[in-house]
Amino acid sequence: MPYVFTTSYIPYNKAQEVAKIYLDNLKDFYAEIRGVAKEIIPIAVKARKDHIEAVGVYEVEESNVGKYLQIESKYQVNFHVLEGFSYNIEVRAKAEEALEMMGLKMPE
What we know:
The protein has three helices and four strands. By secondary structure, it is an alpha+beta fold. The chain has a single domain (3-101), classed as Alpha-Beta Plaits (2-Layer Sandwich), CATH 3.30.70. A four-stranded antiparallel β-sheet has the order 2-3-1-4, covered by helices on one side.
C-alpha cells in the first residue's frame, strides 16, 4: 500500500482563513475517505521562514489511489481562493514495495 503525502504551503497572513476552511470541511473529508485511506499522520505543522507548512500522510490501497487523489484534490480546491496558498500531493512507495520492484525482499 503506497503512502500519499499532501503538503500545504500557507502564507502567514492567510493562516486563520486556512484554519477556518480546514475546520469547515474536515468532517466531510473524513467521511469521504473512510474505507479509501488510513490516516498515518493527521496534520503535522511547522513554521518556516516565510510560510507555514502542513503535511498529512495517508496509507492507500493501490486500487484506491486514484479515488483518494480525486477526493484530496476536491478538498484542496477550497483553498484556491487564498492568494499565496499552494500544495503538493505525492504518492510514495513503502520500502518493501520499492524493494519488490527491484526483485528484492525485506529481511525476515
